[in-house]
Design goal:
By secondary structure, the protein is of the alpha/beta class. The protein has eleven helices and eight strands. Strands 1, 2, 3, 4, 5, 6, 7 and 8 form an eight-stranded mixed β-sheet that branches.
């Protein structure tokens, strides 16, 4: 399907592991369309949000480049409710969840070697939250101990302990303040989610993926839709791949083609789950996609994004 032939398009968009909902992404799309139009000369008209019966949100986009007009229905696929249910709300929950995530990653050293071979920057990004907090803990404890020893020679023991604890606490407080800029806990939450997915600890996810696949199949049955895009951003690329595998399985069973379907991943992190020991079900879904030559899969990832597996 050439771009010039696309008059009607339907987009299913899966966001990353983000508790923000459709209103945030609609605003982002509205702003981005204006910026894109200023560069390309395409005129975009972005409609208002409409809530669907399935819980998703859609908005219409009319794009005109010269005499060519494309009408797009952009469907934000709701899974932010699952994100919020999986989102640790306390530091203790983040710690326990991240330990599960790192345990899942460390369960297979051969998988880590594959990550190193595929994307060294990403492996560094995977390791740096743990390194950051371990370093902060050691620095705080070390500085507190030194302060306690130095103060003990000129002050009572109780005062020396108070000074040591205050120094350690100030360093840890500074680490917490710095963490808000680095977003290490956000990465830890993502690792926890990947580990929980592997361990089938995300109860609503399989049914949600089945629903997405059925919605895609219904749109593929509409002859008036020239092109259907399934777009997954960041962690959403995992869900997009899983949903696409379900669509392919149903199409192969029914003898239908997928010529109008394109899988588009943006900043994908599929190996984050795909290389985990025990993630056999997800790897089987990737194998399904490998057996679908008529399904186009396009990825846009940047080597400057250390959280993705670029190239």
């Amino acid at each position: 399907m050439t771009t010039a032939a696309v008059k009607r398009r339907h987009v299913f968009f899966l966001s990353g592991f983000d508790p923000k909902g459709a209103s945030y992404y609609h605003g982002l799309y509205f702003k981005g369309a204006a910026q894109q139009g200023a560069v390309t000369g395409t005129r975009y008209e972005v409609g208002t949000r409409e809530r669907c019966e399935n819980g998703n949100t859609t908005w219409r986009v009319r794009a005109q480049t010269g005499s060519q007009v494309t009408e797009t229905t952009f469907e934000y696929v709701r899974w932010d409710d699952i994100v919020r249910a999986q989102w640790p709300r306390t530091g203790w929950q983040v710690l326990l969840g991240s330990l599960r995530g790192y345990r899942a990653a460390l369960a297979s050293l051969s998988a880590l070697r594959k990550v190193w071979q595929a994307s060294r920057r990403t492996l560094v990004a995977l390791a740096y939250p743990a390194a950051f907090w371990l370093l902060s803990l050691v620095l705080g404890a070390g500085a507190g101990a030194l302060a306690q020893v130095a103060t003990a020679s000129i002050a009572p023991a109780f005062a020396a302990w108070v000074v040591g604890i205050a120094v350690a606490a100030s360093i840890w407080w500074g680490a917490l303040a710095w963490e808000k800029r680095l977003s290490t806990t956000w990465l830890l939450r993502i690792y926890q989610f990947a580990g929980d997915w592997r361990d089938n600890r995300v109860p609503d996810l399989p049914q949600r993926l089945d629903n997405i696949a059925r919605a895609i199949e219904q749109r593929l049955a509409d002859p008036q839709v020239d092109e259907l895009l399934l777009v997954g951003f960041s962690v959403g690329s995992l869900l997009a791949a899983s949903a696409a595998a379900r669509v392919h399985e149903a199409a192969a069973r029914d003898g239908r083609g997928l010529e109008r379907l394109t899988l588009l991943t943006l900043g994908h992190c599929i190996p984050l789950l795909g290389l985990m020991a025990g993630a056999d079900a997800f790897r089987a879904e990737l194998a399904q996609l490998g057996q679908a030559p008529q399904l186009r899969w396009v990825d846009f990832s940047s080597v400057t994004d250390w959280g993705s597996f670029a190239l």
